[in-house]
């Protein structure tokens, strides 16, 4: 990741990677259930994420039995028409989407070998135990788990940094979750502004919350983005997001539980490039020419002699033009020099300077 020459001290670290406003946004490719129950495909997703420049590769660690009950009652069915999973049993959906636990080690190993930080979202204590055995450098808490305080305490006890999505959560619920993590021993927290709809719409994303969230909770803040495209994520970086998470697949045409709102490799590469470009453009509050602009000042307008004039000629408006380049007096000096006598003959195209007037004049 590119660093500016005067990068600010990091707010926190994911392993050896600094996270904070002075550093390139950390982009996470979320595999979720896009492996479609194929380890070979899962490994290919890891490789594609690395090739696209993603900095982190995220899994989800659960089984259907750690999330729900094997039950046909209406409470355990996905309802609503605004979701790709409408009509599915929760148990069946989670069985299809889960990443088998024996895949975690090879997926973590492949991600690390390709220079990415592997991480996962645990959903119960046994998942945390598995991730600890793999020496996970950072943990993710899903939006739907922000009220699962026993899980937050278990994750906090690892002492690792925690990224927590905040979809659906009220300010009070976020405050309670952050306090639970801090009281449990977690000091490094990144909150992600998130809209828990799949996909989300830009109009329902409210990323102006990002700087407010940072001030309100004293945490680094990023964006878990379920919208299509990369515009929302780039705008999030402009508002201070230091971590960006997007679902990722090899091809939406391949289908899968999360495919409809997932990025493809070329889109992920564009996301990495454009979020870094947005971050680079933030810079600092600055007025006046930058070092790169100094040479361009010569193309500003200035005062030039518009026609040949003899020595002693009293300068008139017809004798002067406000033109490019900028080697003459500034245009603001025009009223000061009109009516003054020239100390010597001047030729058309000479820059107008005070030295052209007779000594003792009002120039």
From TrEMBL:
Superkingdom of the source species: Bacteria
Coiled coil: none
Start and end residues of each AFP-like domain: 302-360
A Pfam family recorded for this sequence: SAF
Entry-linked Gene3D superfamilies: Aldolase class I, Antifreeze-like/N-acetylneuraminic acid synthase C-terminal domain
Family annotation (SUPFAM superfamilies): AFP III-like domain, Aldolase
Record EC number: 2.5.1.97
Keyword set, alphabetical order: Transferase
InterPro entries listed in its UniProt record: AFP_Neu5c_C_sf (IPR036732), Aldolase_TIM (IPR013785), PseI-like (IPR051690), PseI/NeuA/B-like_N (IPR013132), Pseudaminic_synth_PseI (IPR020030), SAF (IPR013974), SAF_AFP_Neu5Ac (IPR006190), SAF_PseI/NeuA/NeuB (IPR057736)
Alphabetical list of PROSITE patterns matching this protein: AFP_LIKE (PS50844)
Molecular function GO terms recorded: N-acylneuraminate-9-phosphate synthase activity
Swiss-Prot/TrEMBL GO biological process terms: carbohydrate biosynthetic process
Protein known as: Pseudaminic acid synthase
Gene coding for it: pseI
């Amino acid at each position: 990741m590119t660093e500016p020459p005067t990068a600010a001290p990091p707010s926190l670290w994911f392993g050896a990677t600094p996270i904070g406003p002075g550093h390139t946004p950390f982009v996470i490719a979320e595999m979720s259930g896009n492996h479609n129950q194929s380890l070979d495909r899962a490994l290919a997703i890891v490789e594609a994420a690395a090739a696209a420049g993603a900095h982190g590769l995220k899994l989800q660690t659960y089984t259907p039995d750690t999330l729900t009950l094997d039950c046909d009652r209406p409470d355990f069915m996905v309802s609503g028409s605004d979701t790709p999973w409408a009509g599915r049993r929760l148990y069946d959906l989670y069985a299809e989407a889960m990443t088998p636990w024996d895949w975690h080690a090879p997926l973590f190993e492949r991600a690390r070998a390709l220079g990415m930080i592997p991480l996962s979202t645990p959903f119960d204590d046994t998942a945390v135990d598995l991730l600890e055995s793999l020496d996970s450098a950072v943990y993710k808490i899903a939006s739907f788990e922000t009220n699962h305080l026993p899980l937050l305490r278990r994750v906090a006890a690892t002492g690792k940094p925690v990224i927590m999505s905040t979809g659906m959560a009220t300010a009070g619920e976020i405050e309670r979750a952050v306090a639970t993590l801090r009281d449990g021993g977690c000091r490094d927290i990144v909150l992600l502004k998130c809209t828990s709809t799949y996909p989300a719409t830009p109009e329902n994303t409210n990323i102006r919350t990002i700087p407010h969230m940072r001030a309100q909770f004293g945490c680094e803040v990023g964006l878990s983005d379920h919208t299509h495209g990369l515009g929302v994520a780039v705008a999030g970086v402009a508002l201070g997001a230091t971590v960006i998470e997007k679902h990722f697949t090899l091809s939406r045409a391949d289908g899968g539980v999360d495919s409809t709102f997932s990025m493809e490799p070329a889109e992920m590469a564009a996301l990495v490039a454009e979020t870094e470009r947005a971050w680079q453009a933030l810079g600092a509050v600055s007025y006046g020419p930058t070092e790169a602009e100094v040479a361009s000042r010569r193309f500003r307008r200035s005062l030039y002699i518009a026609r040949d004039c003899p020595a002693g000629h009293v300068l008139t408006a017809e004798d002067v033009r406000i033109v490019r380049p900028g080697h003459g007096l500034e245009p603001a000096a025009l009223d000061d020099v009109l009516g003054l006598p020239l100390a010597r003959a001047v030729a058309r195209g000479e820059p107008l300077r005070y030295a052209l007037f007779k000594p003792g004049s009002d120039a």
